[in-house]
Protein: RNA polymerase sigma factor
Amino acid sequence: MGDGGRRHGRIRADDAELGAAVARAQEGDERAFAVVYRLVHPGLLAQMRALVAAEAEDVASDAWLEIARDLDRFRGDGAGFRGWAATIARHRALDHLRRQKRRPRTVGLDQEALELPGGQDTAEAALEFLSTRWALQLIATLPREQAEAVLLRVVAGLDGVAAGRVLGKRPGSVRTSAHRGLRRLAQGLGPETDRP
Structure:
């Protein structure tokens, strides 16, 4: 599990911090768990957005509940933890998709929630949302195998070995799928491509 954060032969800069925070969180340090969440959640949420779209927050929350519940079972370093968390999140996303096929769900909006002020600059948040949404929409056009490989390798920052464990495939297969997906995306991005 120790090499899950290597990316193109490099170790992610925050893997040591993540590994130390995971160890402290396993001892019951709530602040350390907050650090773990801060370091892992953005990549996990992007992965969920690509897999379950509008339900990403809910599925990610389910994944974090399982991660917190089973944290004491995890053995490994920061990079390994990223892969472990991505595997749990992917399983929750696949469970969600199976449930959706059985019974479609409708969601109503709470008017009060729509009126709450945001904690950040609205223009900046809108641009970030559009850029993220645009990128995820592009990735969603890929075949599922390529899309998941791109998400795990590029967005979540996992190497081929860790991404392979998440997807149940050989590392070379995942690297190939990610490469093909990225090449396909690059071919679709010409100078005339509309971007937000």
